[in-house]
Design a protein that fits this description.
This protein is α/β, with parallel strands linked by helices. It has two domains: about 160 residues, 3-Layer(aba) Sandwich (Cytidine Deaminase, domain 2), CATH 3.40.140.10; about 45 residues. The strands form two sheets. The chain has a seven-stranded mixed barrel with strand order 1-3-2-6-7-8-9. The chain has a two-stranded antiparallel ribbon with strand order 4-5. The longest helix has about 30 residues.
C-alpha cells in the first residue's frame, strides 16, 4: 500500500453522472497510447465531487496500470499501489476532488468488473463505474454509460452485488464550454450551409431515436425470453 492512505468516502446517493469534456479527452488519450488497434481496454480512476440534486460531477481522472487475460476473464491485475500514489499527488493540486469511481473503455461491462468495483469500494462506499465507448466511429448519442452496484438476491437465495444503470450526461464548467466551443468551431465544415446543418441535425436526432427504440425492443425481448429478470423500475422508464 502507499505510504499515505486515501481517506475513505461515504458516498451520497446520485441519479445522474455528469462527465466533463476534459475527462473524456484524457480517457481517449489513455486508450490511444495503450490499447489502440488492439482488443485491450484501459482502466482508470475518476475524481470529482457530489453536486446538487443527485448529480455526481466527474471533473478529473488518471490512468491506472491494468492487465487482463482475454481468454481467462477471471485473471486480471489492477495496480492499487500506483493508484494510491497517484491520488496522493493529485490531491496536492486539487484537494477538493475525491475518488468517486472508475472508468473502462469497454465497450461493454465484463465479468471481472464487479470485482474491480469492489477494490474501488475500499475508497468510496458506492463508486460510479463509467464505460466509455472509444471504438465505435459511427456512434450515435453519448459515448458514456454509467453504473453503480447494489446487493441483490439471486434465484438461489445468494446475496451478490450487481451493476445498476444510471443516467449519464456531458457537463462542463463555463471555462470548459468556451474551450469546447472554440474546438468545435475549428473542426466544423465552414462550407456547409445553414439549411444543410439543420437537415444534418434532424437526421442525427432521428438516428438517436431509432437506436433508443431498438435498445428498448431488445431489452423487452430479453425479459420475455427470461434472459433478464423483470424489473418494474426499468419498465416504467420505458
Amino acid at each position: 500500500m502507499a505510504d499515505t492512505l486515501i481517506r475513505y468516502i461515504e458516498a451520497k446517493p446520485f441519479n445522474m453522472v455528469s462527465v466533463h469534456p476534459t475527462v473524456l479527452l484524457s480517457i481517449v488519450d489513455h486508450y490511444n497510447r495503450v490499447a489502440k488497434d488492439t482488443k485491450k481496454r484501459v482502466v482508470g480512476i475518476l475524481l470529482g465531487f457530489y453536486g446538487d440534486k443527485g448529480v455526481l460531477d466527474v471533473t478529473s481522472c488518471y490512468a491506472v496500470p491494468f492487465e487482463e487475460d482475454l481468454q481467462e476473464p477471471e485473471i486480471w491485475f489492477f495496480d492499487q499501489i500506483y493508484h494510491e500514489k497517484m491520488f496522493n499527488m493529485m490531491r496536492r493540486i486539487n484537494g477538493k476532488e475525491q475518488v468517486i469511481g472508475w472508468y473502462s473503455t469497454g465497450p461493454n461491462v465484463r465479468l471481472c468488473d464487479i470485482h474491480i468495483n469492489e477494490i474501488v469500494r475500499r475508497y468510496n462506499s458506492n463508486p460510479c463505474f463509467v464505460v466509455v465507448n472509444v471504438q465505435d466511429e459511427n456512434l450515435i448519442g453519448l459515448p458514456t454509460s454509467a453504473y453503480y452496484s447494489q446487493e441483490e438476491v439471486d434465484d438461489d437465495g445468494n446475496l451478490n452485488r450487481q451493476f445498476v444503470h444510471v443516467g449519464s450526461s456531458i457537463g462542463a464548467t463555463e471555462a470548459e464550454e468556451i474551450g469546447v466551443e472554440h474546438l468545435l468551431r475549428d473542426v466544423k465544415d465552414a462550407s456547409q450551409g445553414e439549411l444543410s446543418k439543420k437537415v444534418s441535425e434532424k437526421l442525427l436526432g432521428l438516428k438517436v431515436l431509432v437506436n433508443k427504440l431498438k435498445e428498448m425492443k431488445d431489452y423487452l425481448e430479453k425479459v420475455v425470453q427470461g434472459k433478464y429478470r423483470y424489473n418494474q423500475a426499468i419498465i416504467n422508464n420505458y
